[in-house]
Specification:
The complex is a heterodimer of chains A (300) and B (795). Chain A is mainly β. Chain A is built from two helices and 17 strands. The longest helix of chain A has 18 residues.
Chain lengths: 300, 795
């Protein structure tokens, strides 16, 4: 046989075999049918929006399966909070969104107490979790100092001293600073500054700080601010409001794991998938309580 | 077990016969090139002894004396039979002539004895490697090894080797005795070893001799050719992807027998895809720049002072580089902005080996070697923005750099001592010094200059010192039982501590009948290096890291047993083997490990600054299974069928809730069929067919909304999802034609001939609220064509 004959035979063989090509249709495994419960209830001096939508505190939805299957909707069931002075049944008046049902958790939480949340929705496994409400942090001192730079008289410094209510237990705090203006009709405008922690003992990167840095149960945080960054003239603003949100170790761990989970989804060259276990038995998700301390001082 | 092995060793030493006799020893070489031949078999039919030439073509056997007959066999060479009267120690120099008729050659891939060979060890000759059709027609050592039982590749096209449940870092890959740390060219499509320069490849996957160590799973010992000592020859191979060439020959004065004492070899290759695409990019006026190339270069110098002293120097270097660039300019009335984004990924290997082989006496052969090996990886991303206008100029620059550097320098002494006819004692000492520079660095804007900013992972230089010693007895008890038993001692200095490890090694082979033998082996190993590899990407973003106070050395224990045999006078050979391997103290990235993002930790302590904070430690591995190899060694149709049935598990306390899970490359079934059909003496057709169960991966299977409104993905159990099964057919045709200058070889063929869309990666994308699982395929059918010119006056 000549080379041409061989090559011709090979080409015919290739064409014939290429017709065998198939495209794989891939199916994902189905997910166990269960609820997803997400919430960080706000309690304390003021209400802060900690939850997923519109200030509601508990979102109940179903876990959405990626598998190509029919997925039913959920029907409302009962939600009961046990603990404290009495058991409380959450009223069946949720706001329904594209995500699921949002329930307002108007519960008179007692800081330091342990509670359980029981969720029983028809056709879904019963879900429950146990959690404790963190103690409320005490704001010992709140101060705003004069301009500290001659070249920039609009620069001011704030100091806030906190008292750790549980020096022997790990707790975590998120600090916030808001500029407030209340008009003649009683409407309040707020501009959130955040809290840019400049303390050398504390690294940036987390929304929360640990009470590990507290000395004898106390710590003073300091922040400098250039007022020219505020919208409107400084004279527009009347008060400064500080809030301190306390969460317990369990909530802190979940939020940090959630942060890593979200980062891992971006999947850079080195990112590894990060499963996110919650604290709810019988369902996915997490529930906890944020206790808020607040104080205001007038514009200097 | 340790006590048992020691007792076994001592008993053998005490009871071994000390019969008087004479030594027959010598070298076996190619008659044309004077190249020493590795693995040639020397059998003594009367005494029923069988031995092989070592890496330097040397053999030695003690015999009772008197009338002596020996047969010498080596693939592709004419058999030699010698008969003489042995009355004193005798040294032979035997030159084998290459066989003219290829159809009658015997192709050996498993080291065969009189009935099927040694299980756990396999060899591939250069000829065999060159005839296996693979991507682009490029002959490839590691891809050829992937076609053997118990050996798997990683992802499609990858050059990674996963041997009996191990990971690629658990393979000791030696090039002329120096370890090579990254074997991948072109992101794994090709191996870094140029087959033109390779003389022999041996793979040990079980019953690993005590002379090899510091890796858990296998040894791949690659020997470069020494260079022709009679005349200069070479070859040039032009393919679709690149060009490669080789030249070898004698140096200096010829001796009276026509040989030179010194020979050299030089080979290299380079891809030219970047050279082709660059002009198109320039002429098209695009501001996007893409370029990729790889090259490698091997050199070897060999000098023989006298028959008892020989010195080698070999050098190897390889480099891959990928460049991606984008430039954009925008202009307004008053300002212009010039933005440049450049990405460069490169990785390289260098090895240098100096070795002195010496025949000290009729009984003792020794070699002393020094080597240096270096692996470097860099992934550099820079973004520079220059703004001019309004009488001002400013520029900012930011970027990130990931680097992994590993250097090793070592001195080794090895010796082989024939104590009696039945006992060959092998021993050695070695010391290795390692230096690691793993690091990922983020750069920050600083005016017009670029300076190091937040260093999220910039580990300091880490060093590791390892000392080794081994002793092993290769024994023969009568004509039915042989094997080896030995022990290797490895000790590493980790911080202030010395960590010693005793690793027993044993193999026994029992000749059950003339055609069937039973073998069993035990191997215990330790590994002081770890490779951190991303579980999602096959890119070479790997970090080599040492054992530390926190990260213990990994260890393994493997027990294997099987039977081997032959049919029709060796036309067919077969092997069935089972293995059970346990591994401990493995490491891997922890879930959510991430070097370049800010990563707060509980307590709001500083973000992670060391690779040790990103890994799960104390992992366990378990692999077990069975392997079948059937070979046809003679006739017009040659080749083999290799099948592996195996299970492969991992277990880490911090992963998968502490439950064991399948390893990423746990494939239940792995089948390879390799066939070479000779149409005539010059033309042949080659076919490979590979079938594998799908590998394992972790995928999101659902989602819900979290407390902060972001989407949380639910993952199935770790590695619970299976890729679709993988199968592929490669076919090739080769034709040789003798020319006045030597020979021309024409090759044509196709990788993945029926264009099976094998899944390279799978991922979930959500479009219009509907998640879909996509499987991405890398290679459809890839035809190839190449021409090789062999400049060889003897051809």
């Amino acid at each position: 046989m000549t080379i041409k004959t061989h090559i011709g035979g090979i080409l015919v063989l290739l064409l014939g075999l290429s017709s065998c090509t198939i495209t794989q249709e891939l199916d994902l495994p189905t997910v166990e049918r269960k609820l997803a419960i997400s919430g960080l209830a706000s309690f304390g001096d003021i209400f802060v929006d900690t939850a997923v939508t519109g200030g509601n505190d508990l979102l109940i939805s179903r876990v959405k399966s990626y598998a190509n299957e029919e997925q039913d909707t959920i029907i409302q069931g009962s939600i009961v909070v046990r603990g404290g002075t009495e058991d409380i049944t959450i009223p069946q008046l949720p706001f329904k969104s594209i995500f699921g049902y949002n329930y307002r958790m108007d519960v008179p939480w007692i800081p330091g107490e342990t509670y359980s949340l029981e969720v029983d929705f028809p056709t879904y496994p019963q879900a429950n979790c146990t959690f404790n409400v963190p103690p409320k942090v005490e704001i010992l001192n709140l101060d705003i100092q004069e301009a500290i730079s001659a070249s920039n008289p609009a620069r001011v410094a704030f100091e806030i001293t906190l008292q750790d209510p549980e020096p022997n237990a790990p707790n975590f705090f998120q600090l916030n600073l808001n500029a407030l203006h209340t008009d003649n009709e009683g409407n309040t405008f707020s501009n959130n500054i955040g809290w840019f922690i400049e303390d050398p003992l504390i690294q940036t990167g987390s929304r929360y700080v640990s009470d590990e840095i507290f000395v004898n149960g106390q710590y003073t945080f300091r922040q400098e601010l250039d007022l020219s960054f505020l919208p409107f003239a400084p004279s527009f603003w009347q008060n400064w409001e500080f809030t301190v949100q306390s969460i317990n170790q369990e909530s802190f761990n979940y939020l940090e794991e959630l942060n890593l989970h979200t980062l891992a989804l971006d999947n850079d060259l080195f990112g590894q998938p990060k499963p996110l276990p919650g604290n709810i038995e019988g369902a996915e998700g997490f529930f906890g309580v944020v206790v808020v301390s607040a104080d205001t001082i007038p514009w200097p | 077990m340790k006590q048992f092995l020691w007792s076994f060793f001592l008993i053998f030493g005490l009871l071994s016969p000390t019969a008087k006799g004479q030594y027959v020893q010598g070298y076996i070489e190619d008659a044309d090139s004077k190249e020493r031949l590795i693995g040639a078999s020397i059998s003594f039919p009367e005494q029923k002894f069988l031995t092989y030439t070592n890496q330097y073509g040397f053999f030695q056997q003690k015999l009772p004396g008197g009338k002596t007959r020996l047969n010498i066999n080596f693939v592709g060479y004419e058999k030699v039979e010698l008969e003489f009267f042995l009355e004193k120690d005798t040294t032979l120099l035997i030159a084998l002539r290459p066989e003219v008729k290829k159809l009658e050659t015997i192709e050996i891939i498993a080291e065969k004895g009189i009935s099927g060979g040694t299980i756990g060890k396999m060899s591939l000759s250069q000829e065999r490697i060159k005839e296996i059709p693979l991507i682009g027609g490029e002959a490839d050592v590691t891809k050829a090894l992937q076609l053997l039982p118990g050996v798997q590749g990683g992802t499609e096209g990858s050059s990674g080797l996963f041997v009996r449940g191990g990971s690629p870092d658990q393979n000791l890959i030696l090039l002329d005795g120096a370890p090579v740390y990254n074997t991948a060219h072109a992101f794994g499509l090709f191996s870094v070893f140029n087959p033109a320069a390779i003389k022999d490849v041996s793979l040990y996957k079980g019953g690993i001799p005590a002379q090899y160590g510091e890796r858990l799973s296998s040894v791949i010992d690659i020997s470069l050719k020494e260079g022709n000592r009679i005349y200069t020859r070479g070859n040039l191979d032009l393919g679709l992807l690149g060009v490669k060439g080789l030249v070898e020959g004698p140096l200096g004065k010829r001796k009276t027998n026509g040989n030179s004492s010194t020979s050299y070899l030089l080979s290299g290759r380079r891809t030219f895809l970047d050279l082709f695409t660059r002009p198109f990019q320039v002429f098209s006026g695009t501001d996007n720049r893409t370029g990729f190339y790889f090259h490698d270069l091997s050199a070897k110098l060999n000098h023989q002072f006298n028959p008892n002293n020989q010195i080698f120097f070999s050098f190897y270097t390889s480099r891959d580089q990928l460049d991606l660039g984008n430039r954009s300019r925008s202009q307004t009335d008053s300002t212009s902005i010039d933005s440049r984004l450049t990405q460069r990924v490169n990785w390289s290997n260098q090895t240098a080996v100096l070795r002195w082989n010496k025949l000290i006496s009729n009984r003792i052969f020794s070699k002393l070697s020094l080597y240096y090996s270096r692996y470097r990886l860099g992934a550099d991303l820079r973004n520079r923005v220059a703004t001019t206008g309004n009488g001002m100029e400013s520029s900012t620059e930011e970027g990130s750099l990931f680097q992994s550097n590993l250097q090793e320098i070592s001195a080794n002494w090895k010796s082989s001592w024939n104590i009696t006819a039945q006992h060959n004692l092998r021993m050695g000492l070695g010391i290795q010094a390692y230096q690691f520079n793993p690091g990922a660095v983020q750069f920050k804007t600083q005016g017009d200059s670029l300076a190091r900013g937040d260093s999220l992972l910039e580990a300091p230089t880490q060093r590791l010192l390892v000392g080794t010693a081994y002793i092993s007895d290769i024994f023969q008890l009568g004509s039915k039982i042989k094997g080896h038993v030995g022990v290797r001692l490895s000790a590493a200095q980790v911080s202030e501590d010395i960590l010693p490890y005793i690793q027993p090694r044993a193999r026994i082979q029992w000749q059950m009948t003339d055609r069937i033998n039973f073998q069993a082996a035990y191997t215990q190993s330790v590994q002081f290096l770890h490779l951190l590899a991303n579980s999602n990407l096959p890119l070479p973003v790997d970090l080599w890291v040492p054992s530390t106070e926190r990260v213990a050395p990994a260890t393994s224990r493997q027990l294997s047993a099987g039977v081997a045999g032959s049919l029709k006078q060796g036309v067919w050979t077969w092997q069935i083997e089972g293995f059970y391997k346990e591994m401990e103290d493995l490491i891997t990235y922890e879930e959510g490990a991430n070097f370049f993002e800010e990563e707060p930790t509980p307590g709001n302590i500083a973000p992670s600054s060391n690779w040790e904070d990103e890994v799960e430690i104390n992992g366990k591995g378990l692999a077990y299974g069975g392997e079948l190899l059937v070979q046809r060694n003679q006739g017009r149709l040659k080749g083999w069928l290799a099948y592996t049935l195996s299970w492969n598990w991992r277990e880490f306390e911090g992963l998968n809730q502490g439950k064991r899970f399948p390893f990423t490359f746990d494939r239940r079934h792995d089948l390879s069929i390799v066939a070479d059909f000779s149409l005539n003496e010059k033309r042949s057709i080659q076919v490979n067919w590979v079938f594998q169960s799908g590998r394992a991966t972790t995928l999101p299977v659902g989602e819900f909304i979290s407390v902060n409104g972001s989407t949380v993905q639910l993952f199935g159990e770790r590695n619970s999802f299976r890729f679709p099964m993988y199968h592929r057919l490669d076919i090739g045709y080769s034709s040789k034609k003798d020319k006045s200058y030597g020979q021309r070889v024409f090759r044509v063929g196709a990788y993945n001939a029926y264009s099976r869309l094998n899944a390279y990666s799978v991922s979930v994308f959500t479009s219009n609220g509907e998640p879909t699982l996509f499987a991405n395929s890398l290679f459809p059918i890839l035809p190839y064509i190449s021409i090789e010119w062999i400049f060889d006056k003897k051809k």
